[in-house]
Amino acid sequence: MRGLRKRYGPTLAVDALSFTARPGQVTGFVGPNGAGKSTTLRMIMGLDRPDAGSALVGGRPYRSLRTPLCRLGAMLDASAVHPARRARDHLRWLAHAGGLPRRRVEEVIELTGLASAAGRRAGGFSLGMRQRLGIAAALLGDPPALMFDEPVNGLDPEGITWIRGLLRSLAAEGRAVLVSSHLMSELEGGADRLVVIGRGRLIADTSVADLLEAASGGRVELRTAERQEAMTVLARAGATVTAAGPGAVTVAGLPAERIIALLTGEGVAFSGVSEHRASLEEAYMELTRDAVEFRAVAGREAP
Ligand SMILES: Nc1ncnc2c1ncn2[C@@H]1O[C@H](COP(=O)(O)OP(=O)(O)OP(=O)(O)O)[C@@H](O)[C@H]1O
Description:
2 domains, Rossmann fold, alpha/beta, 37% helix, binds adenosine-5'-triphosphate
């Protein structure tokens, strides 16, 4: 995506958006409801025309691809299936239209665990089965790039774990996988990189590891039954100390070794000292806080 922009009447849905989903990685595409994710994915597939900028698949516009199913597999809307059509027949007409062999249909049915449901009409499918069918359709052409719009939305924990594993294995095969979500927690353990957008604009384009490290901010978790004494000792040594539940303290501004030395020296008992690991959700909150300030500044600068 380079400088993508899309306006719907008064709404600037996507604004100056640039990012790349790279081979061998799961790129999480995250932003709150209405941030512009679906609009971006539609522009990638040529279903919406950008007002400015371009979206390329393997260096070319999607609409110019001669064998699109073999270049980019996509699930934008899992319910976009004729309810009276059986799952296998749905996949067969797609394969036929894309010039793909029939045996590929059976392969993707196996890959997505749909074997026992393939003869049933899609209208009676649960949400989880519809998602599997949408993913099967995306995999038909064995494409090097895949994108899924909110694939875990509304799924049970088992379904979420399955999709997460599938995305990881597709990326491990060297494919570029772009997956959108409005919940950061859904991407925890699933994405390598994150592209975060808000109100159509890029907020962050970063590896998950870098984001978590920045959000963890060198803080240390301390477990102690003598919380008050520990907080007094550490605050006196210049640390910023926050009570984090019964028997737990979060310490900023002192390394773990120094905390251990201080508490031992003062005879304060403790049972654990560990580096604080921020959750992806925490990291997201920090990012969004910055984004709000950024938006306020951007708003003032606007003509
Ligand atoms: N066809 C359309 N006509 C008018 N406005 C639209 C259209 N499509 C999207 N929008 C608006 O553009 C903005 C971005 O919408 P979009 O659906 O891309 O967001 P999203 O990040 O995918 O949100 P969600 O997580 O809710 O799916 C929203 O304000 C939406 O109301």
